[in-house]
Design a protein that fits this description.
five-stranded mixed beta sheet; DNA binding; 434 Repressor (Amino-terminal Domain); 3 domains; 268 residues; alpha/beta; Cro/C1-type_HTH; transmembrane; Lambda_DNA-bd_dom_sf; DNA-binding
Length: 268
């Protein structure tokens, strides 16, 4: 059984092409061809079609490791549209479920791709080499200025497990401003939240905590729920947002307005 990378090397050498010559024909960089042959990435759909045409082999031969029949058929213009449609579907299925998907923009900022999207098959391991890394990064693992993924790290980050230097949103979220089911941050909001300023169902805040249950130097919680603090008050459903703000300000006069607004979102 041969992988795509091995078949590509064999086909290229049989034709006597160098990596540079193949790259020129496919209108890609030599580094791209090198990564294909090293089994680090897969060509995009249009390039797979071009490779199939160039070497007169079927896509089954290129993409299915166990396939040894090259197909050896010429492409006929009359059937090209239907063939391309079938090819796209085949490649989508293969890329989506076998090798994953990767897109990296040619535009870079300080050598970093502007956009990098990378999804791979789940292997049960978190490896940084599998991460999407770009100014905008999207993938199973994403690292970027703006990032989104199952495991995400960025200045602005969204993910199941999210780490954001400024803003973080996720199931488990850590950041300067963190929001999630479990949130940890300078300012944190979630079902369970921990921070300097925290709000949520269960909130623990060093300076201020607001929520159904709240623990903090200044704490506001629902009547009958867990409440602890140096300055604390229990409120009922009829309390207004403005009243809670005024209470918090009375003990924390220097707290920024946007933090007060965030901490009192649950009140009317």
């Amino acid at each position: 059984m041969k992988k795509f990378c091995d078949k590509l090397i064999q086909l290229r050498r049989e034709k006597g092409y160098s990596q540079e010559q193949l790259a020129e024909y496919l209108e890609v960089s030599r580094q791209s061809v090198s990564k294909w042959e090293a089994d680090k990435t897969m060509p995009e759909i249009s390039k797979l079609i071009a490779i199939s045409q160039l070497f007169h082999v079927s896509l089954d031969y290129l993409l299915i490791d166990s396939c040894e029949n090259r197909g050896d058929k010429k492409w006929e213009p009359a059937s090209e549209t239907e063939e391309i449609r079938r090819t796209i579907n085949e490649v989508k299925d293969y890329i989506g479920y076998q090798k994953g998907f990767e897109y990296k923009s040619r535009v870079t900022v300080a050598g970093i791709p502007l956009i990098h999207i990378k999804f791979g098959r789940y292997t049960g391991r978190i490896r940084m080499k599998d991460a999407a890394k770009g100014i905008i990064a999207v993938g199973n693992i994403a690292i970027g200025v703006v990032s989104a993924g199952f495991f995400s790290i960025g200045i602005f980050s969204i993910g199941m497990l999210s780490l954001g230097l400024l803003v973080s949103l996720g199931i488990v979220s850590i950041g300067l401003l963190a929001m999630g089911v479990a949130a940890i941050g300078i300012v944190a909001g979630g079902v369970t939240s921990l921070g300097i300023y925290a709000t949520g169902v269960a909130a623990v805040g060093k300076n201020i905590a607001t929520g159904v249950s709240a623990v903090g130097r200044t704490a506001v919680a629902r009547q009958g729920e867990k409440l602890w603090g140096y300055n604390m008050t229990a409120v009922d459903d009829g309390v207004t947002r403005e009243w809670v703000k005024s209470y918090l300000i009375s003990y924390n006069p220097k707290v920024p307005k946007w933090i007060l607004d965030f901490l009192t979102l649950m009140y009317k």
